[in-house]
Amino acid sequence: MSVLDNFGEWKEFLGNRVKQAEGIGMSEETISDLAYQIGDYLNEGIDPRNHQQRVLKELWDVADSDEQHMIASLMVKLVKSETEH
């Protein structure tokens, strides 16, 4: 089973990667840029596997580049807030 199959597992996976990136000194901006690149890759090459991914894809598809960067930044913020609890 892939981490993409379950949205909760995806958020946990992403949260762990964000912690690792922070641990090696990556800036918030760099982490958000990487999240944008991952989001763009997933949008282009991966079919949504659950409702949450479908919503994110639909938002990504109608967003301009600035808005896509904001979506990526919000995903980083979401997973960071969940790992702090």
TrEMBL record:
Q: Which domain of life is it from?
A: Bacteria
Q: In which organism is this protein found? A: Seinonella peptonophila
Matching Pfam families:
DUF3243
Q: What is this protein called?
A: DUF3243 domain-containing protein
